[in-house]
Design a protein that fits this description.
Chain lengths: 123, 262
């Protein structure tokens, strides 16, 4: 259940950005997630629903955008889409590949409401 | 975060992506951000790595499922290398200091981190441990992570190398079942291979094939750490890694009585 730790980190980042921009409510948080991030999205959503209960993100929606796994093959140069436990080149079968997408776990967007528009941006 | 050793970590800056658009529509504000959710952990890990580098320490993060033989491998490693290198161990477990006691019985400093209910070590826990474990005079630091093939994979600790054990009493398809941790490994160790003759359901070739299926070409070596230890390839890998790190960084180890020049 390391999703609790990840969720705590997410809420810390959201809180810092929201405060800096003078927001008093966060409506929606969007993250980018790849299957090779090692995080289970359903567990992250469960953790979020519990951990956001208090604070600026209370009641906010957590939207998770999935980024599929893509590998780049050093043998034939192809970039092919694949799944998390099969990271070989789908064109030539080579296993000397590099993951170029699918391990993301990052905060993408915060939609929030500010009490007085632009009031905090000057600071 | 850390004010006790003079190595204060600067607070993580809020990074709203350069060139990102933010629009304010009445009182609605949208901030486009591109920040890793583990940015704070990664920053602390980088700080730990600086600590290790400054002291010329090779730090190894040792991971596996529970009971794969991490502590037994460390005990055999200490016996094999303690006359050549100075070794220290950080032990991660949910409860008890049993593993640290085992390591200390071999005359090696060991610090136990008990994580309570947490299923993994993170960079902050290791950083706190480093305050109680002087790195001066240490060549090799092993960080024995919590036995778990899932959670530890997501957290950089500041180590130089990740090593994952796969014991032959487990399934040989473990790399396919737990791709994140095996993909992150710089070395995979098949442990308890002295039991292979007693088992008819573990095929090292299938384990190797599952690992290659993750696009990994890292070494897969065999070890047996109990009874008659057979850990030669593991010792060779460790000494090569240590020599390579020191050559790369031109770090001279400084034994008590001899100053080596590299």
């Amino acid at each position: 259940m390391h999703e609790l730790s990840i969720c705590q980190a997410l809420l810390t980042q959201v809180g810092e950005i929201a405060r800096k921009r003078g927001a008093d409510t966060v409506d929606r948080i969007t993250i980018e997630w790849g299957p090779l991030s090692g995080v289970e999205p359903d567990l992250l959503k469960n953790a979020f629903s519990v951990m956001c209960a208090r604070g600026i993100a209370a009641g906010a929606e957590l939207r998770i955008e999935t980024i599929g796994v893509t590998v780049s093959c050093s043998a034939c140069g192809a970039q092919t889409k694949t799944v998390a436990n099969r990271l070989v080149c789908e064109r030539c079968g080579g296993f000397r590949t590099r993951v170029i997408a699918g391990d993301e776990l990052r905060l993408r967007r915060i939609e929030m409401r500010v009490a007085e528009p632009h009031a905090a941006l000057a600071g | 975060m850390c004010q006790t050793c003079g190595c204060a970590i600067t607070p993580l800056g809020t990074q709203v992506a350069a060139g990102s658009e933010s629009r304010s529509d009445r009182n609605i504000d949208v901030a486009d951000v591109l920040q890793d959710l583990l940015a704070a952990n990664n920053q602390t890990a980088a700080h730990n790595r600086q600590h290790f580098d400054r002291h010329g320490v090779l730090a190894i993060n040792l991971m596996s499922s529970p009971g794969a033989g991490k502590t037994a491998l460390l005990e055999a490693t200490i016996v094999a290398l303690r006359d050549r290198y100075r070794i220290a161990v950080i032990e991660g477990d949910l409860e008890t200091d049993n593993d640290a006691v085992r390591i200390r019985s071999h005359g090696v400093p060991a610090l136990q981190i008990t994580t309570g209910t947490a299923c993994h070590l993170d960079a902050t826990l290791v950083h706190q441990a480093l305050h109680e474990l002087p790195l001066e005079g240490i060549d090799l630091l092993f960080i024995e992570n919590v036995g778990n093939l899932v959670c530890p994979a997501s957290f950089d600790l500041g180590q130089h190398r990740n090593v994952t054990l796969l014991s032959v009493t487990e399934g040989d398809d473990k790399p396919a079942k737990y791709p994140v941790i095996f993909r992150a490994s710089d070395l995979v160790v098949l442990s308890k291979t002295d039991l292979l003759g007693l088992l008819d359901d573990f095929d090292p070739e299938r384990a190797a094939s599952a690992l290659r299926g993750l696009g990994s070409d890292v070494p897969l070596i065999h070890t047996a750490a109990r009874r008659v230890p057979a850990i030669g390839p593991w010792i060779d890998w460790l000494t090569t890694e240590l020599a390579g790190m020191r050559w790369t960084r031109r770090i001279s180890p400084q034994p008590a009585d001899v100053l080596l020049e590299v």
